[in-house]
Amino acid sequence: MQDLVRKEVVTQLVQSIDALESLQGFAQLVPEVGSNLVYCLPNAVQKEEVAGLTGRIILVRGRPKACGDVDFGWAPFMGRVILAAHKMEASVRSAISLRFSSEIIAACQMQELEPVEFRWPRKQAPPSCLTLAALEAIGYVPKVLYDQGAQGLEALVVVFGENPMTIVERVRLICEGESTGECVGE
Hints:
The chain has 5 helices and 9 strands; from the N terminus they run H-E-E-E-E-E-H-E-H-E-H-E-E-H. The protein is an alpha+beta fold.
């Protein structure tokens, strides 16, 4: 039974990554360090129960390209993020990292994705992961969480959802919001 669930998680991730690669406007959302889409098993508690790319989604000639395979235990950053979110809210099992820009946040607001900002107090040394600190500080899992980074930490937008297709739909909405002209900017 567990093998069937793991196979289904991988299948859904592969299909969702394919959908993201062909999604018009997604290239503008990929951060410098690349993006990763993750999906954890029900009741996951350790990184070996989180599937993601063994590499990242990067830009190749301006187009999103998944590098690596989908496998369990290979997404250390996003794996920790989704495990923390899943622990807070069991229905949340998938997440993706996107680049931060005010235009992306405006697109999220326009599409009613209710983005939540987290600002780390500048007087304190930042934690190794602002996203984990943000989840702990706000006490719930929003659809979209973002921070503007800190010294040594890239600004980031994280989209959460129940499954990878929910993530693809939310990313599609963000792309549509950016393409209206009200939110476009580089």
